[in-house]
């Protein structure tokens, strides 16, 4: 097989997910008479689904390490309730409340990681118990809606970056600058990674394939930049938060010892133990990290709602799990990417928004998302079966 064929075969799953996202966007763009990709709807899509992207990043790490976390939605509700009560009832400044929420998320992650990593209770049971515990505590804690959050906290998920650079024919200058920097940064990183791989004697992506991929990315980011720049507010603040999360965790999973250990533990547990990897430490850290990202999602969710409610976070764990699996994570562990989880989250978000614009009943929306998840996992299972046949 040629180098091009080998590379495409290795990355076919990721290309397929991306193609599915494009197809779904085109499908709903036609059915909604162009409303899906209107500038303000694109900004709303990001703001409404930021929590899924954040949770999906943590969930894909958990799944790669061969576990699952059913409690993240309940964690979001519980931590969000704590934020609301600290700010409104106790008068704590909202930045301090956010830090307290992060500390609480880390503590919850330590709690669940302890049972999984050091006691040996299966993650399914630990997090199922966590789902019940934290949902019950949320109902006890937030007996009625806690409203009146300060503008600074509400602006995290609802605000946009200030137009420091002014407007160019109604296009926000800050958004345009961010888009240009994003494209330039990605192109530089890909070229640098290719050069390093070639110097190390590893197989590299063919030039033509790389050029096509970079061209497609430039067009996609350019379109998103133009739509956001023309929207009412420009770049949503929460997009910056999600962008930082994606960059940091992509680096962690691809270029750090912890990332390599997570993949090793998920790919072959016995081999990882024999190679000297502390599998308990890895298991513990992925749940601590999940608690941290659940706290961040709680901040975003509470900010978006402008209040703390007892039903916050309901079924968020299903959205995160679905996004991770749709994005290419393997049921058996050891396989998955942060970028894939983000694409999966976008697919879920586009489905939600497209069906909502079409006024499809929420019950049917749940059924359709469930069907999409089933098909995504079935494709993964069948593909592996054929690969081992």
Automatic annotation (TrEMBL):
Keywords: Cell inner membrane, Cell membrane, Membrane, Sugar transport, Transmembrane, Transmembrane helix, Transport. It is a multi-pass membrane protein. CDD domains: TM_PBP1_transp_AraH_like. It holds the Pfam family BPD_transp_2. Its main location: membrane. It is found in: Cell membrane. The keyword Transmembrane applies. InterPro entries: ABC_transp_permease. The keyword Transport applies. The chain crosses the membrane at residues 12-30, 50-68, 80-108, 114-134, 171-189, 210-232, 238-263, 284-303, 342-360. It comes from the Bacteria. Part of the binding-protein-dependent transport system for D-xylose. Probably responsible for the translocation of the substrate across the membrane. This is Xylose transport system permease protein XylH. The lineage of its organism: Bacteria, Bacillati, Actinomycetota, Actinomycetes, Actinomycetales.
